[in-house]
């Protein structure tokens, strides 16, 4: 399902359908977020927000030249390294058409050593003129998704695809809401697939302002750099070693230092339930918790991360880590009491 940032409607519709039978209510807000609620079985329970973002990185057509080549604006963290001979789908008003991203070959040895800039790339749609491209439906504003088909690796427990960042987080949130259906819980749990994370965590901020949660947990991917050429101290996480509990992250002016009480709750839950986990400090990158925790008077926030190789490229994860993330998040919600307090212990 395509869902470049700002174009998440189809993903949202799918998330809505998946959630509706298992929650007390679900709706779209004006920004495009899907906000579902599983009500507490007691009066006055805390509001807990679970967020995973529906959008993916991609491209937007910004110009079609006289020969029918389409130029684009990247949406989110698109690297030139991932674009050479990259198949894409252009989602036009007349249907989906195939394209191939590339740039001109180097003319000199010096050019060959340099990485082309994003503006040097174009999409070849197999036509010879602007008019032919227009007849196919290509126009400025069309979203473009990368063609990276779903595949299994190894014994089948590893899967690769585009948009694992962060459809896997949406999956964990939805599956957690399903697990909680019919249970007596003391928290009002909001399962929120959000929009526009890849362009500044915008949807989560809007949703958090509306919900005014007492605490929040975002579910997103994190780097698993357990690959050749990276020293062990820089792996961040290892694929297949369990979901990661974030300590901190940072990207430019956004970032999160996880609330210590939430982090302790996640760790103690994992240990008591026998769920494998790992701790995460991510030096570059962040999640929806970066804007959620700054909403209103501040929202105590934490993150459960899915270790992922090759983020923003052909992404690879372990299904075991996803299953254990659902177990961890569900068990954590069950432990949240009606009288939840996340203030530092010394001033309670």
TrEMBL record:
Under which name does UniProt file this protein?
Peptidase M42
Q: Which BP terms does GO give this entry?
A: proteolysis
List the active-site residues.
197 (proton acceptor)
Listed binding positions for Zn(2+) 2 are 165, 198, 312
Task: Check the record and name the Gene3D superfamilies matching this protein.
Answer: Peptidase M42, domain 2, Zn peptidases
* One Pfam family per UniProt: Peptidase_M42
PANTHER family assigned? AMINOPEPTIDASE, AMINOPEPTIDASE YPDE-RELATED
From which organism does this entry originate? miscellaneous Crenarchaeota group-15 archaeon DG-45
Q: Lineage of this protein's species? A: Archaea, Candidatus Bathyarchaeota, MCG-15
**An example molecular function term from Gene Ontology annotations:** metal ion binding
């Amino acid at each position: 399902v395509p869902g470049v940032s700002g174009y998440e409607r189809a993903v949202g519709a799918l998330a809505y359908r998946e959630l509706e039978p298992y929650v007390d209510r679900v709706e779209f807000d004006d920004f495009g977020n899907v906000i579902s609620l599983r009500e507490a079985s007691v009066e006055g329970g805390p509001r807990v927000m679970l967020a995973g973002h529906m959008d993916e990185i991609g491209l937007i057509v910004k110009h079609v030249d006289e020969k029918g080549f389409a130029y684009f604006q990247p949406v989110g963290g698109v690297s030139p390294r991932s674009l050479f001979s990259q198949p894409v789908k252009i989602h036009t008003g007349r249907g989906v058409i195939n394209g191939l991203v590339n740039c001109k070959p180097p003319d000199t040895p010096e050019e060959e050593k340099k990485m082309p800039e994003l503006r040097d790339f174009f999409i070849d749609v197999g036509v010879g003129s602007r008019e032919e491209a227009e007849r196919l439906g290509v126009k400025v504003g069309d979203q473009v998704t990368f063609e990276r088909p779903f595949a299994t690796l190894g014994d089948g427990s590893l899967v690769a695809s585009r948009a694992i960042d962060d459809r896997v987080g949406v999956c964990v949130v939805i599956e957690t809401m399903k697990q909680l259906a019919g249970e007596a819980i003391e928290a009002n749990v909001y399962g929120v697939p959000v929009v526009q994370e890849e362009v500044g965590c915008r949807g989560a901020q809007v949703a958090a302002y509306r919900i005014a949660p007492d605490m929040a947990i975002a579910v997103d991917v994190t780097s698993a750099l357990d690959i050749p050429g990276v020293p062990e101290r820089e792996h961040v996480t290892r694929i297949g070693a369990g979901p990661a509990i974030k300590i901190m992250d940072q990207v430019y002016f956004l970032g999160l230092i996880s609330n210590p009480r939430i982090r302790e709750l996640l760790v103690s839950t994992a240990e008591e339930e026998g769920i494998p986990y790992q701790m995460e400090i991510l030096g570059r990158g962040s999640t929806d918790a970066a804007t959620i925790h700054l909403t209103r008077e501040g929202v105590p926030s934490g993150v459960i991360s899915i270790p992922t190789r090759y983020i923003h490229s052909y992404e690879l994860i372990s299904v075991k880590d996803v299953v254990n993330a659902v177990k961890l998040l569900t068990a954590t919600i069950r432990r949240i009491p009606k009288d939840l307090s996340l203030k530092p212990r010394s001033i309670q």
